[in-house]
Structure formats: structure tokens, C-alpha cells
Amino acid sequence: MRSNFISGAATGIGRATAQKFLSAGWLVGAYDVNEIPYGHPHLITGHLDVTDPQQWDTALAEFTSHTGGRLDVLDNNAGVIIDGALARQDPTRILNTIEVNCAGPTYGARAAHPYLKATPGSTLVNMCSASAIYGQPDVLVYSATKFYVKGLTEGLGLEWKHDDIRVIDVMPLWAKTALAEVSAKSIRTLGVRITPRDVAEKIYTAVHPRNQWQRATIHYGVSLPDMAFRKLRALAPDRTVARVLRHLV
């Protein structure tokens, strides 16, 4: 039985991802700072504060005790958001956002490495965001942390190449989760059209590449708009991108 360990799995995208992989016959570890409110015969649950590296070590050791040391997928899903102008932000909330969104997946990758390395064809999935395509006002700190996640994905992909660990991220626009319950212009202009299930389906597809071209993909979009924005960012000059996005974000 293949295995997937998911952080931030109590609600939203984490929960939808857990349920998707469970329905496909995987053994799933659903860990969160909050209690996991659902069950399944192939579900292992536990407590995890992603900002604590020792808790990562303990949680992964506990989960892999049920898998014979196997870890096919680590899904770095946990994340938080704050909104509003940076000049008015509480420094404590800024630091917490950086710790959860940046330190969290970094500690997770570090702790999971020996298990992923020992499992042929394993994958690290980082939850990124379309806000890492171009810095986004109103949710600036969150957006900046997702640039970190994007860089972490790319760097680890090179660092772990010889360990046969595939490293990818998923970069959706706003999904219908608690993270979208903020004041950001892009929510009003673009809407919230993606569901947690949509993202979970994309994660499942990304973990099962059908050919070498798909296996070489690093960054995954979920909807046509977020994929179009990534293409625009890659091809257009900074000035052009800024002008276009100024009307949206």
C-alpha cells in the first residue's frame, strides 16, 4: 500500500487531499495542530505543529512505523494567511506566517528526506500559490512566503535529483477554503472558483505522471487562469506584467 503524509490535513485542501488518496487505496497520515474530524480504516492521524522540527521527526517516525519505513509522498500542505497593508501588520502575526509557511515545509522536507530516499519513485509536494507568480498586495506576507516555497521546490529538485526524489509544487488561485476569507482585491476581481477537491485532484494527477514530459514538470497550475498568468509572467517584461496585474490585484 502506498503512503502519503499530509500536514495541515484537518480541513480545506489538506482534508480533500487525504480523502482523495484514501479513496484510491493509499495509506494516509493526516496531521494537524487541530484534531482530525474524519476517519477511515487506512487513515493514521496525529498532532503536528509544523514550526517545531522535533514534532516533524516524531510524527514521521510514528506514521512510517505503520508503513515499514516507506513514504511515497510528503504533502507539505499546512499554511496560514494574514491580510491588510504591511505597514499596519502585527509583527507577531508576520513572524507566525513566515514560520508556518516557510520554516514548516523546510522542516518537513528535512525530516522526510531519509524516508523519501528509501522509497523508490517518491515525491515531495509543496503547496504553493498563484500569488508566487507576482507579488500580491493586501496579502503581501503570504505572497512572499509562497515565493519562498517556489524556490524551495526548485532548489530541492536539484539537490535531491540523485536521491530519486521528485519535488513539485501546486500553484492554484484562490480556493474555497478559510484562506480565501480575507480582504484582497484579487478575490473580488477573479472570484473564488476553485474547490479543495479541484486542488486534491491536481495533486493526485501530479503524483502520477503518465510520461517523462509530465514527470519533468515542477510547477502545477489548477485552473486555466492561473496557468495563463504563469505563462504571461514567463514571457512578458516585468513592466507589462505589472500593468496587467495592477487591474486585478
SS-derived structural category = alpha/beta
Q: Main beta sheet, described?
A: 7 strands, parallel
Residue windows where pLDDT falls under 50 for at least 5 positions: none
Kindly report the spatial arrangement of strands forming the biggest sheet: 3-2-1-4-5-6-7
Number of strands: 7
Described by the principal axes of the CA atoms, the overall outline is globular
Number of DSSP helical runs: 9
User: What's the mean pLDDT score?
Assistant: 95
Kindly, what is the distance between the CA atoms of the first and last residues, rounded to a whole number of angstroms? 44 Å
Kindly estimate the percentage of residues that lie in beta strands according to DSSP.
Answer: 5-15%
Radius of gyration: 17 Å
The amount of helix comes to: 40-55%
In N-to-C order, the SSE pattern is: EHEEHEHEHEHHHEHH
What can be said about this structure in brief?
The protein has 249 residues and is α/β, with parallel strands linked by helices. It has helices at 12-23, 53-64, 91-117, 140-159, 185-190, 196-207, 212-215, 224-235, 238-246; strands at 3-7, 27-32, 43-47, 73-76, 122-127, 165-170, 219-220. Helix 1 crosses helix 6 (196-207) and helix 3 runs parallel beside helix 4 (140-159).
Note down, in words, how this protein is organized.
The chain is an alpha/beta fold. Helices cover 46% and strands 14% of the residues. It contains 9 helices and 7 strands, in the order βαββαβαβαβαααβαα. It has helices at 12-23, 53-64, 91-117, 140-159, 185-190, 196-207, 212-215, 224-235, 238-246, and strands at residues 3-7, 27-32, 43-47, 73-76, 122-127, 165-170, 219-220. The protein has a 7-stranded parallel beta sheet with strand order 3-2-1-4-5-6-7, sandwiched between helices. Helix 4 links the parallel strand 5 (122-127) and strand 6 (165-170). The longest helix has 27 residues, at 91-117. The model has no long low-confidence stretch (mean pLDDT 95).
